[in-house]
């Protein structure tokens, strides 16, 4: 396989965990030096191309291309500039390289894309229509599905589109062969994750999980979520996961990004690397099904694109599109790691007095954070820190 927009190798690591020596990474393409440092440390000897725009061709023998192309212009947290944005527009180079592979007479590689769900709605569906038109022009059959990373057992509510396109297998047998349905009964009520940097329009509230880990601000300031620990001691009610906790909540080994000069605090490179990564267990699930395709567990109905959002799952070929009749965002229910299994709540950094006060101020100006006991816990946390500071 060839990993384009590779980040820290979440897709490739998951595929390797699923397929073992059946898969070999021939090359990475990644422009950001901190990410390159991680790739060099964790995938010894694999060459790294620094610029997809200057990449001439895929390595000989490539039969799988992975492309987690930048979501900066597709994410609701980004500039929503669409597929023509400066960063997301780089995906045209994926199609250029695939077209080159086809012209050279080899088998067209299978394509695996990961991106944010907002790509389905952006520009009234035009971004997704563009991607599908380019995929079909190459002769692919395709399928995609929105999945929630919690299905892999990690306590992070992270929704992502996984799209698979192939000329020699039916992608529906990979992405639609599993469905376990809702797993809310697995989530405890002792800890809740939220974003304390927000408070007017959204908290990213999650039970027994953190909301989607983010790359941080545009100037590299880390943006970890906070966790409300309901029965914690004074001063420990609101804590923040460490960068190693975040690595584990993305399915990596703890310390995966602890290479070379990368600090968890200096300009936040490790937080950004983790927040931009693909959850390892998601690609591991895809890899397991690539190794053992199944039959779709759902019926399909025809669907025609209009001037609006695309559905959360669909498949197609040669201009014909079908939508699953029923499919959840949880293909399976891997053993769940609760927040308390990952975060050491006794030693984790507490949310600072300044941070808690700023968050509390924003809460007062809106109607968010109304879960029973939460607002009182925020006020108590502030009181506890003020008391400790005074004493």
TrEMBL record:
Keywords on record: Methyltransferase, Restriction system, S-adenosyl-L-methionine, Transferase
Any one GO MF annotation of this record: methyltransferase activity
Annotated Pfam families: DNA_methylase
Entry keyword annotation includes Methyltransferase: yes
EC number: 2.1.1.37
InterPro entries registered for this protein in UniProt: C5-Methyltransferase (IPR050390), C5_DNA_meth_AS (IPR018117), C5_MeTfrase (IPR001525), SAM-dependent_MTases_sf (IPR029063)
Gene3D superfamilies, alphabetized: Vaccinia Virus protein VP39 (3.40.50.150)
Active site: 71
BP GO terms, sorted: methylation
Homology family: Belongs to the class I-like SAM-binding methyltransferase superfamily. C5-methyltransferase family.
Protein name: DNA (cytosine-5-)-methyltransferase
Native species: Microbacterium gallinarum
């Amino acid at each position: 396989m060839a990993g384009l927009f590779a980040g820290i190798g979440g897709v490739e690591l998951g595929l390797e965990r699923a397929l073992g020596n059946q898969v070999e990474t021939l090359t990475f393409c990644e422009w950001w030096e901190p990410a390159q440092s991680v790739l060099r440390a964790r995938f010894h000897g694999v060459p790294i191309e620094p610029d997809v725009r200057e990449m001439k061709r895929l390595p000989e023998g490539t039969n799988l291309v992975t492309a987690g192309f930048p979501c900066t212009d597709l994410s609701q947290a980004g500039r929503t500039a669409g597929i023509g944005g400066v960063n997301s527009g780089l995906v045209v180079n994926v199609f250029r390289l695939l077209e080159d592979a086809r012209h050279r007479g080899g088998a067209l590689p299978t394509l695996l894309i990961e991106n944010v769900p907002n790509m389905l709605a952006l520009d009234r569906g035009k971004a997704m229509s563009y991607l599908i038109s380019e995929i079909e022009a190459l002769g692919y059959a395709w399928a995609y599905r929105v999945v929630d990373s919690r299905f892999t057992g990690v306590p992070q509510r992270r929704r992502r589109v996984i799209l698979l396109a192939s000329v020699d297998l039916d992608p529906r047998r990979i992405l639609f062969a599993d469905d376990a349905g809702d797993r809310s009964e697995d989530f405890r009520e002792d800890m809740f994750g939220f974003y304390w940097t927000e408070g007017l329009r959204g908290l990213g509230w999650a039970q027994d999980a953190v909301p989607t880990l983010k790359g941080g601000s545009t100037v590299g300031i880390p943006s970890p979520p906070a966790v409300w620990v309901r029965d914690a001691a004074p001063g420990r009610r609101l804590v923040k996961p460490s960068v190693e906790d975040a690595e584990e909540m993305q399915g990596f080994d703890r310390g995966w990004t602890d290479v070379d000069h990368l600090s968890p605090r200096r300009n936040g490179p490790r937080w950004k690397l983790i927040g931009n990564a693909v959850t390892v267990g998601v690609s591991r699930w895809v890899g397991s099904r690539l190794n053992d395709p199944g039959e779709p567990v759902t019926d399909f109905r025809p669907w025609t694109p209009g001037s609006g959002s695309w559905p959360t799952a669909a498949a197609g070929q040669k201009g014909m599109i079908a939508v699953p009749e029923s499919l959840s965002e949880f293909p399976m229910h891997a053993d769940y790691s609760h927040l308390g299994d990952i975060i050491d709540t006794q030693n984790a950094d507490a949310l600072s007095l300044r941070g808690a006060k700023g968050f509390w101020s924003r809460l007062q100006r809106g109607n968010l954070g109304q879960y029973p006991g939460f607002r009182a816990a925020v006020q108590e946390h502030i009181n506890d820190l003020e008391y400790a500071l005074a004493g």
